[in-house]
Amino acid sequence: MRNARNLVRHEFIGLECEIVQSSNLSQTGINGRVIDEGMRVMVVRTSSGDKKIEKKNSVFRFMLDGKKVDVDGNFIIARPEDRIKKKISRW
């Protein structure tokens, strides 16, 4: 079961998210639902279309069971199928 402690080891697709911080200032503040994820990018569906957000140097805020969970994109740079197998001691 997904919770705030093990979120980085689970699938992000389907979760609501907001870009809290990004090296690309035009991406800061984008919010929507994650529809796809690659090794270096996350695709977020917004009201104005789909946006590709680079994981590197970005901070994502996911809504999980009514709680806000911030995830540093530098910790999740990996293919999704490899990331969920990887042991992450503490993020």
Could you walk me through the main structural features you see in this protein, from its secondary elements to its overall organization?
This protein starts with 15 loop residues before the first strand and ends in an 8-residue tail after the last helix. The model has no long low-confidence stretch (mean pLDDT 91). It has one helix spanning 80-83, and strands at 16-22, 31-37, 41-46, 49-54, 58-64, 67-72. Helices cover 4% and strands 43% of the residues. The chain has a six-stranded antiparallel sheet, with no helix packed on it. It has one domain: SH3 type barrels (Roll), CATH 2.30.30.210. By secondary structure, the chain is mainly β. It is globular and about 35 Å long.
Give the oligomer, counting copies of the same chain as homo and different chains as hetero.
Answer: single chain
Identify the strand order in the major beta sheet: 4-3-2-1-5-6
Number of domains: 1
Percentage beta strand: 35-45%
Write out key terms for the chains shown.
91 residues; mainly beta; SH3 type barrels; six-stranded antiparallel sheet; 1 helix; 4% helix
